[in-house]
Amino acid sequence: MDFVRFENVSLAYQPGSPFAIEDVSLSIRENEFISLVGPSGCGKSTVMKLVTGLKPPSKGYVYVDGREVGGPQKCVGMAFQASNLLPWRTTLQNVMLPMEIVEPYRSTLRARRAEYEEQARALLKRVGLAGFENKFPWELSGGMQQRASICRALIHKPRLLMLDEPFGALDAFTREELWCMVRDLWQEEPFTVVLVTHDLREAVFLADTVYVMSKRPGRILVKREIDLPRPRDLEVTYTEPFAAYVHELREHIGHIRES
Ligand SMILES: Nc1ncnc2c1ncn2[C@@H]1O[C@H](COP(=O)(O)OP(=O)(O)OP(=O)(O)O)[C@@H](O)[C@H]1O
């Protein structure tokens, strides 16, 4: 069964204003990794807002886990281009934040804090941040801050991870390191991922399926399954099939920008 489903969804931010996205239909399987790409302003972040329940559709239906989305979803974790770590909290305290908000963790936090903190430490270790638990965000590099931010998005074991250009502000080497980190986290304990990115190599390296969106109003123009074997190592990015996928997607986006 589809885990996320859009049926002919349109959204206008104000009544009577033009649609930001129009007639978008898509289905995402449980534990599928999809990526949304498209020109600036095509509505990628709008799709994220609809999935997470931050905005209701003007037309059509959005379903998550078989239920129509009617408000903020608690089975979702989110990370953005800016890490948005709270500067007065340590890395560990930042990662623990969802445990203070999301049920059933919130109501059991007092009794089980030690256990939950252990889970946060284990997650930080998996992403290479062992030893940095008590550092403040300003004591971490940009890449480390993004690692911590993704831990915060995953600590409450969401079934859906929404990533809105999470690697956009990082240098090329750090970005590739973080691709591998997300790949490993997803492969070890799968969850459904929606990744918004401008980087076509990133989309092809990570995703099972890439959706290309048109200029405003955003529509889905292309759905491309990425049939590269897993597990994928960075070496795959130097192969002919990988380059062919990136080239094809770049051509689609080129046509959209010209039109
Ligand atoms: N809160 C808002 N109120 C009114 N219009 C909005 C709002 N948020 C986005 N829009 C408009 O909706 C359209 C889609 O915006 P959205 O942020 O979803 O695009 P995007 O593809 O994520 O852009 P980018 O790649 O530049 O981040 C844009 O034309 C934008 O101006």
UniProtKB/TrEMBL annotation:
<dbReference type="GO" id="GO:0005524">
    <property type="term" value="F:ATP binding"/>
</dbReference>
<dbReference type="InterPro" id="IPR050166">
    <property type="entry name" value="ABC_transporter_ATP-bind"/>
</dbReference>
<dbReference type="Pfam" id="PF00005">
    <property type="entry name" value="ABC_tran"/>
</dbReference>
<keyword id="KW-0472">Membrane</keyword>
<dbReference type="InterPro" id="IPR017871">
    <property type="entry name" value="ABC_transporter-like_CS"/>
</dbReference>
<comment type="similarity">
    <text>Belongs to the ABC transporter superfamily.</text>
</comment>
<dbReference type="InterPro" id="IPR003439">
    <property type="entry name" value="ABC_transporter-like_ATP-bd"/>
</dbReference>
<dbReference type="InterPro" id="IPR003593">
    <property type="entry name" value="AAA+_ATPase"/>
</dbReference>
<dbReference type="InterPro" id="IPR027417">
    <property type="entry name" value="P-loop_NTPase"/>
</dbReference>
<keyword id="KW-0547">Nucleotide-binding</keyword>
<protein>
    <submittedName>
        <fullName>NitT/TauT family transport system ATP-binding protein</fullName>
    </submittedName>
</protein>
<keyword id="KW-1003">Cell membrane</keyword>
<feature type="domain" description="ABC transporter">
    <location>
        <begin position="4"/>
        <end position="240"/>
    </location>
</feature>
<dbReference type="GO" id="GO:0016887">
    <property type="term" value="F:ATP hydrolysis activity"/>
</dbReference>
<keyword id="KW-0813">Transport</keyword>
<keyword id="KW-0067">ATP-binding</keyword>
